[in-house]
Amino acid sequence: MIRLYEKGERRVAVVEEARRWQEAGIITPEQAAAVAERYRPELVRVNVFIRILLALFTTVGVAALVALPAVIFDVKEDGFTVLCLIFAPLCAWVADHELIAGRRLYRCGAEEALLLLAVGMLALAVAIPAHDWGHSTERLAWLAAHVIVLAGAVLLTVRYGYALAAFGAMLALAGLPFHLADVLLWQSPGLSRLILLLLLGAAAIWAQLRLTGRNSLPRGYVWSLESMRLAAWAGIYLDVNLFAHRLLWREWLVWTPGEWQLPWSDPLCALLTAILPVAALAIGICRRDRALLWFGVVSAILSIITLKYYIHFGHLAEELTAAGLLLAGLAFGLLRWLRAGSKRCRGAFTAEPLLEPRLMGLAFLLGARLLFIRCRFLPLRVPSYMATTTGFRVMPVLLSLRRVWIRPRGAAIWHSRQNAPVGSRENIDRNDK
User: Fold this and answer.
1) Would the keyword Transmembrane helix be found if you checked this record's keyword annotation (predicted)?
2) 209-218, pLDDT tens digit by residue?
3) Residues whose CB falls within 8 Å of the CB of residue 197, separated by 6 or more in sequence, listed in order
4) Within 10 Å of residue 333's Cβ, how many Cβ atoms?
């Protein structure tokens, strides 16, 4: 990732962490404002609505700018290819040098749209001229355009950390086996699905391994890796889902039920439809991964809707009633199990509401006062684990609180106790401590 974004994202992470602490009642608005002032990022940011509008206006403007000479000079395929070859590097240069390096725009929509348009126009410049060169050449040209889109999306992800580009790269990767089957005239329709499963599985494993060191990665890379992992999980689920297997894939790939269809048999797809949500939920709980938990919940709902049309154990009303009672009993059992543990918790899980702003704020303020009154007179040693990205987010907030609020109060308390009369309660407490 470019150094401007890597440095700016660290400052943005500190400011957003302070804002979340303020919303939870841990710090006051004055303290959050002090942290935001100290770690103000050197990047221009906008909200999501302005970002969408800027992206739309940029896309319409570039399309109009390309279409104007095409209409005036009445260009054909070759002329449109020349226009794409001219405007593709121009859009990339304006986005990288003028908007990002010059104006310091950070995910404002305009520079993202220009970079994506540059990749798209470069792919069109390769595919369009092959329209009159024969059917086989045209297929190869569109395959080359597909590879250019995949490579461009990967390049944007690596250089700028765009999660949208990472998602587009996964879409291009998922469509590559079917494009290869069309070009190479594969006769077995199940081979494309098998290659898709292997590619998405490898991408999901690679993203998961990279996310194990997420504390040392920039925030843009973390978002991109999470997008890749979720897209891979979703693609694998759609590949093995029983409903998609029996309706979507057979109609799209012209796959008759009488043909040889191993390993894509109905029992195997039904088993994988049930196993994948359970695996996602288990991994999400073990690794405390919110994204995988949400994917597990959504895919579990889709699996229930899918399987109830093909696998029946009774009437639908009876199955729904039994499932509701089972889930309610499971939730009640988990709460009882957590509350029966030591200190009403089991490991990192508890049944108590930890994010209650009032209780969490009072507990934190008490601990912060004790910590920073001592840190006022002793050197503050930063542990090694605080050198990670999480530590970078937390430590500046704590240091700012120490300077803005707790240090003056700690000094006042210390001097008041030093000047207390001999035999007073403040002096007795100080001597005891």
Assistant:
1) yes
2) 999 888 888 8
3) 236, 239, 240
4) 10
